[in-house]
Amino acid sequence: MSRRPVSVWTYPWDLHDLGLDVALGRLAEAGATMVSLATAYHAGRFLQPGNPRRRVWFPEDGTVYYRPDTARWAGAEIAPRMARIVEEEGDMLSGLIARRDRGGPGVSCWTVCLHNTRLGMLHPDHVMRTAHGDPHLYALCPSSPAARAYATGLVAEIAALGPDRIELETPEFMGFAHGFHHEKDGLGLLPEDEFLLGLCFCRHCLARAAAAGVDGEGARRRVAELLDAAFARELPRAAFPDFPAAGAAAFAGEPEIAAWLAWRSEPVTSLLAAIREAAAPEVEVLLIDFAGSWAGGVDLAAAAAEVDGVLHCAYTVPPEGIGPLLAEVRARIGPRRLIAGLQLFHPTVRDADDLAARVAAAAPFADGFNFYNLGLVPPARLAWIARALGGVGG
């Protein structure tokens, strides 16, 4: 069995419905040494074959699953709200920490930072905005001072509760796709259109960029022109045919946009630095990363230097691609901790042999593993984890 830390992403409602004894027993049998508990989370609709009570569940949007200290947030423009389930059914985070202190598994707090529709609707002046000025209400902007204070304060408060680790999801700019519910697109958006729609030109970004000598208004105008042209075409036609394969280099012929793309990693990197500084030093802070995160303003090398490591999600990468991918991530982050994030969803992962091949491919580069997700897969599928880990040793 692997001696590297092994965690399973877990929702608090699954711990409520299974009970801590049953849930931790299942995880131990799977080889887990840690629980990655959703501690601040967004909305969704979840089919939960691993949950005996809530088979289909709609979690409360944009809430936290611990008890915030109201005194800490006094006067804050943006503050967290505790989910009702904590008051009505108990605080699973404190329960896990108590179990850990009695010899149970480690505790990691899976923390969604800026993806929060409830807070976006309450604070529209602090969300991302398109080149046309339209708000992305599901995405607080990492350039907003109030949003930065919220994310930094959130992680500091969670770290003070005593977990071993905090996993940061969405401290970056969110894109246009996969942000809201029941999304509509009759145009037939090309990848370049989706990307341009996900560039933020809110007043906070424009001011922060101007302070760095970047012409954000020029970039905004040019992006708006490109989107207007895309919206006017009878059928989609690529203006940047080498996107997304070429990444930001596809826009090298657009100097205003190129300068904007070169700048926009600064709010993300500096936010990560502020979060790491605010969190208790004994708590490990990891950035949740994924292929293409550059599009959200993540300069991986710079970002990793500000935190303790990277949890790179390779959910849909086939086994033969995982080794080269993690080798590239390792080269960019250096000695920082690298955790491989893998999922148990069928048919992307066909069976136990498929998961074992993915774990084996990740093992030469990974300092540990996270698996997704306790309640979202049948209980029998958790056995795949133990089998896969057994093949890679310590």
Second CATH tier, the architecture: Alpha-Beta Barrel
Q: Measured on Cα atoms, how large is the radius of gyration?
A: 21 Å
Secondary structure tally: strands: 13
- For the record, the CATH class is Alpha Beta
CATH H-level superfamily:
Glycosidases
Number of domains: 1
Number of helices: 15
| Beta fraction | 15-25%
Please give the order of strands in the largest beta sheet: 1-2-6-9-10-11-12-13
List the uncertain runs: none
CATH fold title: TIM Barrel
Note the main sheet. 8 strands, parallel, barrel
Mean pLDDT: 97
The SSE string, one letter per element, is EHHEEEEHHEHEEHEHHHHHEHEHEHEH
Return the structural class: alpha/beta
In percent, how helical is the residue content?
A: 25-40%
The coarse overall form would be globular
Distance between the termini: 7 Å
Description:
This protein is α/β, with parallel strands linked by helices. The chain has a single domain, classed as Alpha-Beta Barrel (TIM Barrel). Helix content is 39%, strand content 16%. The protein contains 15 helices and 13 strands. It has helices at residues 12-18, 20-30, 84-89, 92-101, 117-122, 145-160, 191-197, 203-211, 216-232, 255-263, 265-278, 300-306, 319-333, 352-362, 383-390, and strands at 6-10, 34-41, 46-47, 56-57, 63-64, 106-112, 127-129, 135-140, 165-169, 284-290, 309-313, 337-343, 368-372. The strands form 3 sheets. An 8-stranded parallel barrel has the order 1-2-6-9-10-11-12-13, surrounded by 6 helices. Strand 7 and strand 8 form a beta hairpin. Helix 13 runs parallel beside helix 14. The longest helix is centred in the middle third of the chain and has 17 residues, at 216-232. The chain is globular, with a radius of gyration of 21 Å. The mean pLDDT is 97.
